[in-house]
Amino acid sequence: KMIFNNIKYHVANGTAVLTLNLPETLNSFTVAMHEDVQAAMLDVRTNAQVRCLVITGEGRGFCAGQDLKDLMGSGTEEPAELGEIVEKYYNPFVRAIMTLEKPVICAVNGVAAGAGASVALACDIVLAARSASFVQVFCKIGLVPDSGGTWNLPRAVGLARAKGLALLGDKLTAEQAESWGMIWQCVDDDQLMGEAIKLAEHLATQPTKGLATIKKLLNESLSTPMHQQLENERLAMRMLGQSNDYKEGVAAFMGKRKPEFKGY
């Protein structure tokens, strides 16, 4: 069992749950928390028991972005080089989510601000508690939405709304985020984790390799020319047509029984 100080991590029923666990600072990122997250994400990627990941936060916030106190240190040394922090910690986390060959659900339990909002948008299916909100706070301190924010936000809500959110830094409620198509679903606060786990445990029984390929094709689709995308679909169909899960799916359909997918 892996022991962490800044996150909680456990695996059950094919599902890994990674909980950011610094509730007193609304789970703001510190270097120590990033290091825990990187270790957990490595397990998610390599652990054959894991076929779906849920990311959530402990307490009343999901993640308020970077812990500015952690950034400033004791105040005596040189201020942190932000590009280096993005390169070492934020970009690897977002890449790990978006290239993970397994579905990732984000259960946004409270405010998702700054990089917290970007991390949520990098996930495949986002559920948010009704009391949750999303805030692009970067403009208030002279920075830009990082952690894939400038890539995922316009793809989720369109350019006009992305610019409004990023330039003004206004709070967007979970209900508004759902109506704008920014997230999959807004649910009552007390239903959030139940719904997220139910969804994850369902996905963990599905053809994981097929789901991974769907995710990859969709993520690439907005920057791939149509003819190339058609070719990518063909190659995907050729590969998946030889998979165990495809054969099982067809056999179960023909035999009018429930399929038992192995994930490959």
Summarize the structure.
The protein is α/β, with parallel strands linked by helices. It is built from eleven helices and ten strands. The mean pLDDT is about 95.
Shape field:
globular
Instruction: Determine the number of helices (DSSP H or I, runs of at least 4 residues).
Output: 11
The amount of beta strand, in percent, is 15-25%
Low-confidence stretches: none
Q: Between the first and last Cα atoms, what is the distance in angstroms?
A: 26 Å
Q: What is the element string, with H for helices and E for strands? A: EEHEEHHEEHEEHHEHEHHHH
Structural class estimated from helices and strands: alpha/beta
Structural features, described:
- Helix content is 47%, strand content 16%.
- The two termini are 26 Å apart.
- It has 264 residues and is of the alpha/beta class.
- The longest helix is centred in the middle third of the chain and has 18 residues, at 82-99.
- The chain is built from eleven helices and ten strands.
- It is globular, with a radius of gyration of 19 Å.
- α3 runs parallel beside α4 (115-122), α5 (149-157) packs across α6 (159-168) and α9 packs antiparallel against α10.
